[in-house]
Amino acid sequence: MSKRKATIIFDLETSGFRCMPMLSDYHRVLQICARCIETGQVFDSFVNPEFKGGVPTYSSHIHDIKQSDIMKAPPMEVVLQNMYNFFNFQSYDTVELIAHNCTYFDKIMIMKEYKTVDGEFVPDNIVFWDTLTWLRKNKPGLKSYRLGDLYKYFYGNDITNAHRADADVMALARIYLEHIAPYRSEKMTQKDIEMAKIESECLTSIRFIGEWRACLLYKHAT
What's the CA gap between 168 and 114, in Å, rounded? Predict the structure, then answer.
């Protein structure tokens, strides 16, 4: 019997900006949007990180999310549980979370947020996949691999409301379905999935050291 898999395109908007470290207590998720490729379901929620001082002006200039947008939003632990229940993650053997620059941003932020929820880890049926890495390898020579520039390259138009999680998810989902999924040859074997879980849970999710260093340490240790 084939194993059930959910493919989830997701995007985060955060309170961070240039010069703010990702591991700062003030660099938190403000919005998460996700779309399941198999079912078409869309989950979209603001997040209230409940930190003092409100949303930094510098980050608001990027995504136009203000303190007034998130004041009545639930905290991240509630949003994570709501998303888990909304997509019924527990019913799948594998949930593949796909984002643009997932490896060096979205994945780290998700792991960071899970660690703030009473020491919880990312559920063990979740793995991550990065469209940016794939496009750089399979579409070499493009002037830019930013999501907005890629969307304009493929479709000739700008993303409406770019830098908002919901708009970016819809744009990435279209690119994934039409320009990546039909040509994606890197099918994840069960071994690939298990390796991703081990590296993420044992290293990256604990120390936030990033996939590249995590892989080096893991391979050295084994």
Answer: 23
Residues 111/200, Cβ–Cβ less than 8 Å: yes
The torsion of the CA quartet 45, 46, 50, 53, rounded to 10 degrees, works out to 170
- pLDDT per residue as tens digits for the range 13-71: 999 887 888 888 889 999 999 999 999 999 999 999 988 878 888 888 888 899 999 99
pLDDT digits (tens, 9 = 90+) for 192-217: 555 555 555 544 444 445 544 545 54
The alpha carbon dihedral of 160, 172, 27, 69 has a sign of: positive
Total residue length of the chain: 222
State the DSSP code for 123: -
The SS3 call for residue 32 is: strand
Give the Å distances, CA to CA, from 201 to 112, 133, 177, 195, 205: 12, 21, 29, 10, 5
Q: Which two tokens stand for residue 98?
A: 């796909």
What's the whole-model pTM score?
Answer: 0.81
Token reading at 111: 């792991």
Query: How many C-beta atoms lie closer than 10 Å to residue 2's C-beta?
Result: 5
In sequence order, the 6+-apart residues with CB closer than 8 A to the CB of 192 are: none
H-helix or E-strand spanning residue 15: none
d(CA 183, CA 93): 23
Tokens representing 210? 């990033």
Q: Which two tokens stand for residue 102?
A: 């997932």
Sign of the CA dihedral 48, 53, 57, 59?
Answer: negative
